[in-house]
């Protein structure tokens, strides 16, 4: 009877454990931004070389956070601080989502205009309203769910922009609009950030004066890795990788350029980026173990054909 009781108790205990306690599958999401598509794909490729299965969904930021809170997602590579603080604040105090590692420094995130608009005297948020007609009272954002600060500025009538429209589309749609307006010499104000190839593909200038909304230094930001509560303790080898996986503006911009300029999938761009910079693997994978207990560095290199 004792062995049978113990077995029954073990079965009941296992049934009570959440499905996400299994570390073989790592579930991530990103909001459709090229930088996060790239960093998520790099993470995905490394994890698969370690023996894990992976999934990356494209979801709005509020949905990502709610899914992490429910335990439906494990990791998110893209908390832009402070630009995404309004999204994260609702989860910060509860501890349902943990910020574990700054994976990129030197980022920025605020509004920009074409260089010829800046040269005409629009250098600050405060200059926009005086030229409302030239801008057609329109602010260009990206995916719905990613423009909350822009929408809040309009709702508050900050900078006299209360009657302006926020046009939400996508990162690619916004940049296509920028290309059209630049060819025509038209005026446009839009959400811009670095790392991103837009900073070299277009002559753009970031606007001053948005510190109260986007932070100082043109929305100077860090990008951090976040996980659902307790995930690093449950899956320490995945957690080790996530705590060591660090990018920089130049590396991220290079990989994003592969996606935007040559139209490969994020997975292909990630493999190409790693192949161009294999020296990064040692720091990213140091001390880690594969799912079968092996050393991560040779396993990942073999999986990537390096």
Automatic annotation (TrEMBL):
This is Glycine betaine/proline transport system substrate-binding protein. One of its GO terms (cellular component) is ATP-binding cassette (ABC) transporter complex. Pfam families: OpuAC (PF04069). It comes from Phaeovulum vinaykumarii. NCBIfam families: ABC_choline_bnd (TIGR03414). SUPFAM superfamilies: Periplasmic binding protein-like II. Signal peptide: none annotated. GO terms for molecular function: choline binding; transmembrane transporter activity.
